[in-house]
Design a protein that fits this description.
Layout (H helix, E strand, L loop, with lengths): L4 H14 L4 E5 L2 E5 L10 E2 L8 H14 L5 E5 L7 H7 L2 E13 L9 E4 L4 H7 L5 H12 L5 E8 L2 E11 L2 E9 L8 H15 L4 E7 L3 H9 L3 E11 L2
Parallel strand pairs: 3-4, 9-10
Antiparallel strand pairs: 1-2, 4-11, 5-10, 5-11, 6-7, 7-8, 8-9
């Protein structure tokens, strides 16, 4: 899938909006994010914009803020990171690469909403029972608070099997993009098409809410997830990784 820089920036901005940190600040155009818990995105600096003239001072400012909260400094570095040499600067300061991820996307069009997937404005207990099962304890501590702050338009999707919730996802529309978050299926029901059905509903809802592109971000090493999204016609459009200070 060939996309313009403008569309890629829309995807990246929508992804930032889709998972809001509890505390944010502006550092010369960068978005400093802090939440606690195990979420890397909500505890790293988003580097899509840089409006300053002293990169090293901006890095030091972010480090100072994280250390004041007892959190190891972390930056999210993507294909559109500014300035372009930030990755090299962080490496020189002792930052190591952590968890490379891929940004995947596809074009979508308006269609009928599936009738077998429940759609709600808030994450009810059935939704949480699936999503929280699949994440670490440190992420469970902050996830409900982050989810409560996800901006509208948003939708929480639940697929049931014999009345039991088995698969969930969260969709957020921003900048003409629907971002898929929190896609999860109970282990006993994987590889039977549940996630595909959830994603079909999410794409249909997103198109109805004004999105022309569906996108998501997945860990590069997560082979099952990468294979699933490839089957659903998602294509790699960018990549990113985190840089975390080693000491």
């Amino acid at each position: 899938m060939n996309i313009s820089r403008q569309t890629l920036m829309a995807i990246e901005r929508a992804a930032v909006r889709a998972w809001p940190a509890l505390e944010t600040d502006d550092i010369q155009g960068w978005l400093w994010r802090c939440t606690g818990g195990g979420s890397q995105r909500a505890n790293s600096v988003s580097t899509l914009d840089f409006a300053g003239d002293d990169v090293e001072t901006a890095i030091a400012d972010a480090e100072r803020r994280y250390r004041a909260r007892g959190i190891r400094p972390m930056f999210q570095v993507c294909d559109l990171t500014a300035p372009g040499d930030l990755d090299e600067r962080l490496e020189a300061r002792g930052y190591r690469v952590q968890e490379p991820c891929t940004t995947l996307a596809k074009e979508i069009a308006r269609r009928e909403l599936p009738t077998d997937v429940e759609i709600a404005a808030r994450p009810g207990e059935p939704w949480l029972s699936v999503y929280l099962t699949g994440i670490t304890e440190s992420r469970r501590q902050t996830a409900p608070t982050i989810l409560a702050g996800v901006p509208a338009p948003r939708a929480f999707f639940v697929l049931r099997e014999d009345g039991k919730p088995i698969s969930v996802a969260l969709g957020i529309v921003a900048h003409g993009v629907v971002i898929a978050e929190c896609v999860a299926t109970l282990a006993a029901f994987r590889r039977h098409g549940a996630s595909a059905r959830i994603m079909t509903a999410l794409e249909a809802w997103g198109a109805r809410a004004g999105a022309a592109v569906a996108a998501l971000q997945a860990v590069t090493a997560n082979a099952p997830a990468q294979a699933l999204y490839a089957r659903l016609d998602y294509h790699r459009v960018a990549g990113y990784h985190y840089r975390v200070l080693a000491s």
